[in-house]
Amino acid sequence: MIEITVKHYMQRQPNYPKVAPTDQFYLWxxxxxxxxxxxxxxxxxxxxxxxxxxVLSVIGYYQDIVADAGLWRTFSDLHNQHYGTPxxxxxxxxxxxxxxxxxxxxxxxxxxxxxxxxxxxxDPYDKELEALAEAFYQxxxxxxxxxxxxxxxxEMMDVDLNNQADAQRVYDLAYWLFWRSFLxxxxxxxxxxxxxxxxHAIIKDAGDEDATPQLQELNDRLMASTLxxxxxxxxxxxxxxxxxx
Length: 245
Hints:
This protein is an all-alpha fold. It has two domains: 145 residues, no CATH class; 92 residues, no CATH class. Helix 2 packs across helix 3, helix 2 runs antiparallel to helix 6 and helix 3 packs antiparallel against helix 5.
């Protein structure tokens, strides 16, 4: 059974640990998606943790689309420039509308999270994935007109990369994009898994000392060096593209 607590949901939000007026609505949608998946016959070979991450990634995409916060728009525009389609695998269907809620976007976000968060291989054209994505899309579409814009997303991205006074806000945005956003978190998690032995060694060597500074240094090194996202770029490039968009 997929368990999504308030903390699970809030940790993926850019305003964490602060609560925004829209959080109750999107948590409610997340719980409905989780219940739908639990009661469906599809894709139960994945762990509960991976299923939870997938639901929360879909919520992240949904929030971004409703608010037109820019992350999906940036990715879609870049993919279209490079490959002539707004997203991998599924291309542009007859009913596809740029920067709006689309069933193929939902399916891609689910596939991207599932394949990055588990050792299992999943065909992007898997019939169970298609069926579950369609069920998710129908639920999201039903609530689309009533869905409130998550203003915290827009506020977080309103930064000036060249203004020293915005340095902390730029770092906070980079951290959220890399570790928490629906688009970059899956690949960031893979990078973190690769350095877990180093993190454990840092904690062991620290003994009674506080290992936090060294772990933070490891975290920042990963953020600076890792190519993240379904269009693999460094976090600085994602930031520049996102803010320019």
